[in-house]
Amino acid sequence: MEYQSSKSAVLQLWKKFGGSAFGRWTVSKVVAFKAPYFRSIKPCFAEVSPGRVEVLLKKRWGVTNHIGTVHAIAMCNAAELAGGVCLDVSLDRRFRWIPVGMEVKYLKMAKTNLRAVCEYPDFASIQVGDVVMPVGVFDTNGEEVFHADITMRVSQRPTNK
């Protein structure tokens, strides 16, 4: 069966508005409005394309823990956002998805602003079943401080009758 490119609303918004700082901010706000829990981390998309999504997370008081580093759950949120949007903008339009699990590794203390990156270059081969979206979270020195493997369940989109 031949891959049918995504018709993701996020991808369409990104193509239209992602070329400017204000546009990237606007797309980020629209996504967070649709999935309100992500507003807690105030994410900003830096890149959205099939097979690759990058989300920026500023280190600020609202996402820190008792020792002044970015809280683990804030990084989980950024990872889930990057992985979910990456799958959404990459997935064959005949399919839909939902997260069903996440395995995380805290590699270093997150002391700076962060960048969550999900790359899935073989996206055209995704079929029905579970797919693992890998997400690395990097500090401003380019060091990976957190890693998540997010299992997404892909299913056939119901056909309209």
Automatic annotation (TrEMBL):
Family matches, as Pfam families: DUF4442
Q: Which domain of life is it from?
A: Bacteria
What's the protein called, per UniProt?
DUF4442 domain-containing protein
This chain's source organism reads: Microbulbifer variabilis
